[in-house]
Design a protein that fits this description.
Distance between the termini of chain A: 48 Å
Helix content of chain B: over 70%
Strand content of chain B: under 5%
Oligomer: heterodimer
Number of strands of chain B: 0
Largest sheet of chain A: none
Strand content of chain A: under 5%
Structural class of chain A: mainly alpha
Radius of gyration of chain B: 18 Å
Number of helices of chain B: 9
């Protein structure tokens, strides 16, 4: 199964946003939804911000994923509102922690997913360059995006191989489980990483000239809408404090 | 920005180094997050300061065999900090990640990037980034616990704050360093036992 993070083609339909706007959205959600800035007074703000990734998913043609997200989020949200004041005890504590964690992490996760699945590496590099972020941060960061699915895939494949040999938490060699799974994963990933850097150097990454980019990025109408919402949220939170 | 094709002669970071940083950052984070995910259960939160530096030592010691220039460890620390911040660990982690990376880099530079003893020490300093994850519990404690209460309920927070009293702060800071050094020793042993044989050092 091929999983890919940074897509080969850019976003084709829907509300096309500049990569910088998407990054702003991720930042806003990680500060306000994940970080819980503003505390209880801004309680209403979190569902509003969490609604934006839903709109983005649905309009970009990922209707199924969007619906799934909306369903999961609203279930957890109402579970929190209804059950949180009433339930006590260990069993319900588990449900509460699960739903609380979902409410906290899901919007950020979905926004990050939207970002990596609708932005090409070139668009990302172009956006970072416009923000005057040095190559020394941009290149490693784009490698992180490109390489994470590969490492996860390797880890799963090694897990399968170990299961076939009966090595697992419930199987043989429990004490050496960690070593048996981590070491091959590091070895494989390091070798793939070497190949990756050879490929990138062949395409001229290390060349002593400035890298050019043909990607056309820029702010449009929908960027303005999102940025306005973000500014409103920030002003609102400052006013409350 | 001019980058030299012949990187070996120049002290600056070239394309190959930058890719190496990215690759090892991913390996490091994937391994760490297996144990970091335990932090959903309150009693495991202080223990992440033990497990994460310990297992992180293995990829980090391998990474140190690839770093020969100043800046690579600093950038890795910064990247881990920024990624952890986006994943919702609070803004302190971005600052702590940069600082611990910088200290580890300076330690390695003092040994000209080839001293085996100093690389274990550098691993100890680098592992202190993990303290940034726990810092919201101690700096701005009231506000942080209030935001947790909104999502997880009062019982969970009372439980959690009994596991994380204020005196735990220096203990956890020391734990990240000590277990970072132990992780470094473990990583060095693993490098000798596995990675040298596999030919990737």
């Amino acid at each position: 199964m091929q999983r890919e993070f940074m897509s080969r083609e850019g976003q084709i339909k829907g509300l096309i946003l500049d990569p910088r706007t998407k990054l702003l959205l991720i930042l806003m959600i990680s500060v306000f939804v994940l970080g819980g800035a503003g505390g209880l007074k801004l309680f209403i703000l979190r569902p509003i911000l969490s609604f934006i990734p839903f709109v983005m998913l649905v309009t970009s043609g990922r209707v199924g994923q969007g619906m799934l997200y909306a369903l999961a989020y609203s279930t957890c949200y109402f579970a929190q509102i209804v059950l949180l004041p009433e339930m006590t005890g260990m069993g319900s504590a588990f449900i509460l922690i699960m739903s609380g964690a979902f409410c906290r992490f899901l919007p950020g996760f979905v926004t990050a997913y939207f970002f990596v699945s609708t932005t090409t590496v070139s668009e990302f590099m172009a956006a970072m360059e416009r923000m005057h972020i040095p190559d020394k941060i941009t290149i490693p960061l784009s490698v992180v995006f490109r390489f994470t699915p590969t490492v996860m895939e390797e880890a799963n494949a090694i897990g399968d191989a170990m299961k076939m040999r009966g090595i697992g938490i419930f199987g043989r060699k429990r004490k050496k489980l960690f070593e048996y799974r981590i070491i091959p994963m590091i070895t494989c990933s390091a070798k793939i990483g070497d190949n990756l850097s050879q490929a990138a150097l062949t395409r001229g990454l290390g060349a002593p000239v400035k890298r050019t980019n043909i990607c056309n990025i820029g702010f449009g109408f929908w960027d303005a809408v999102i940025i306005c919402i973000c500014i409103l949220v920030v002003v609102w939170s400052i006013a409350y404090m | 920005m001019d980058m030299n094709v012949t990187q070996a002669e120049a002290g600056r970071l070239g394309g190959k180094d930058l890719i190496t940083i990215g690759v090892y950052t991913v390996i490091y984070i994937v391994i760490i997050s297996v144990f970091g995910a335990l932090g959903f259960i309150p009693i495991f939160i202080p223990l992440t300061a033990v497990f994460c530096p310990l297992v992180g030592g293995i990829p980090f010691m391998l990474y140190l065999t690839k770093t020969k220039k100043f800046g690579m460890i600093t950038i890795m620390g910064t990247l881990i900090g920024v990624i952890m911040f986006v994943m919702g660990m609070g803004y302190w982690i971005a600052i702590v990640g940069f600082i611990s990376g910088l200290i580890a880099d300076l330690v390695m530079k003092a040994g000209n990037y080839s001293s085996a003893k100093l690389s274990v020490l550098a691993c100890g300093f680098f592992s202190m980034w993990d303290f940034g994850n726990l810092m919201p519990f101690f700096v701005g404690r009231e506000a942080y616990l209030a935001t947790l209460e909104e999502n997880y309920g009062a019982e969970y927070v009372a439980n959690l704050s009994s596991y994380m009293p204020m005196w735990m702060m220096p203990v956890l800071l020391a734990a990240t360093f000590i277990f970072g050094i132990l992780g470094g020793l473990l990583g060095r042993a693993m490098c000798k036992k596995h990675f040298e044989r596999a030919g990737i050092v």
